[in-house]
Amino acid sequence: MLNMAEGVARLGALAASPVVSALADAFAAAGYELAIVGGPVRDALLGRPTNDLDFTSNARPDDILRIVEPLATATWDIGRAFGTIGAKVRGESVEITTYRADSYDGVTRKPTVEFGDTLEQDLARRDFTVNAMALRVPGPTLVDPAGGVEDLVARSLRTPGDPAVSFGDDPLRMLRAARFASQLGFSVTDDTRAAMSELAGTLSIVSPERIQGELVKLLRTDAPDDGIRLLVDAGLMQLVIPEVPALRLEIDEHHHHKDVYEHSLTVLRQAIDLERERHPGSPPDVVLRLAALLHDIGKPATRKLEPGGGVSFHHHDITGARLARKRLQALRFDSDTIASTTRLVELHLRFFGYSEGAWTDSAVRRYVRDAGGELERLHILTRADVTTRNKRKASRLRTAYDDIERRIDVLAAEEELNSLRPELDGNRIQQILGIAPGREVGEAYRFLMDIRLDEGVIGPDAAEERLRAWWAARG
């Protein structure tokens, strides 16, 4: 619950901070207005951490630069065309933007940049009322023409004006609605939600890079499943990751299986909980969260209704990895994120064979080898993938995974599993066999790697003897 007395005190402290005071005095001395705007004001009222400061002013970009340069250790004007000047003032990054009164053509989400004359005019063009508040400095004076404070109290998310107009101007705001709903724990008003459903198709004018950016911000929130539900229900996820709404499989009255969509959201929540438990204080792991959300997207394509009422999803891990790669590429994710996420999707079922019977040391080594740098994420994903309500089964799976992690630790201490490789490298293989680089060196390397995985460390002399015997047997 928002405590207004405490919120007002935090706003006062924000206005009195050294960087704000210095800028406020400098703009006032130059005859211009200045206000802190958007997220910092919202977060101060809510008692949330305030990060980079955003300001707005009636000063034009050249004037802003002239005013801040004497105070700044660095300035940048990469956003100058949009009226934004950035600066480093007293160790803090700030951005100051001229009042805006943009218009949109309805074809692209790129506005025609127009400078405005008043703070109220600038606030009216912002995405949501809780972001359309400003704190005039010096003073300070709270400016809230759209009722953002009331919406903070009600924990409600709505646009300053008609949501159809707001989303029509910039469809990306619909994805921001999902992100802020998750980030703040707010509900979206009925008219805002209805406009999202009505205008979902307009998201097609937004670039994949922008969509990816909002998806990543959503996944970094504490409860991304809330925003994902909103996107699915509004029909927007169909245009972002259509494989997610496709998880809502129809349940045949004669064939029963768990709700794959609800299961995936549960896995995402559990993965986040385990991520925090195992790595407290670390930043949100987007790759892990993507893998948790997407780990079962191969199920719709592989579902088979079996005689007797069973349902199978054979090879949904392989199919899912292929679908995940294609979707993440379409969203312009970087190659490392794509490779790591798809690898986790591909391997997420591997452990369940362990729970059916003890693995040999060789099988454990192969598990580590195949996971590579994704081993810790795979530990978390596999544990999170247990959503059964059967307490006995859940306990058995937890015990089995405790055991495999213990065995990995023991083997790692004995054999340095994280750097598993044959005991003879490619150069030594070539010297021993008297061959040049080529396919046969790779075959020999794989032969020695199998020995390393199956038998552990046998020593370089024994490895050379086995290599020579293998080579001789080849003729």
Model description:
With 475 residues, this protein is α+β, with helices and mostly antiparallel strands. The protein is 53% helix and 9% strand. It folds into three domains: 1-149, Beta Polymerase, domain 2 (2-Layer Sandwich); 282-419, no CATH class; 426-473, no CATH class. The chain has helices spanning 4-15, 18-29, 39-46, 61-68, 119-124, 148-154, 163-169, 172-184, 190-198, 208-219, 224-234, 237-240, 260-278, 286-294, 299-302, 316-330, 335-347, 361-371, 375-384, 391-415, 426-433, 439-455, 460-473, and strands at residues 34-37, 53-57, 72-76, 84-89, 92-98, 134-137, 141-143, 156-157, 187-188, 304-305, 311-312. It has a seven-stranded mixed sheet with strand order 3-4-5-2-1-6-7. Strands 8-9 form a two-stranded parallel sheet. Helix 1 packs across helix 3 (39-46) and helix 18 crosses helix 20. The radius of gyration is 28 Å and the shape is elongated. The model has no long low-confidence stretch (mean pLDDT 89).
Protein traits:
475 residues; alpha+beta; Beta Polymerase, domain 2; 3 domains; two-stranded parallel ribbon; elongated
* Rg for CA atoms: 28 Å
Instruction: Give the biggest beta sheet.
Output: 7 strands, mixed
The CATH topology of the largest domain: Beta Polymerase, domain 2
Number of separate domains: 3
CATH architecture of the largest domain: 2-Layer Sandwich
Separate helix tally = 23
CATH superfamily of the largest domain: Beta Polymerase, domain 2
- Average pLDDT across residues? 89
Domain HD: 260-411
GO molecular function, one term: ATP binding
EC number: 2.7.7.72
Enzyme class: transferase
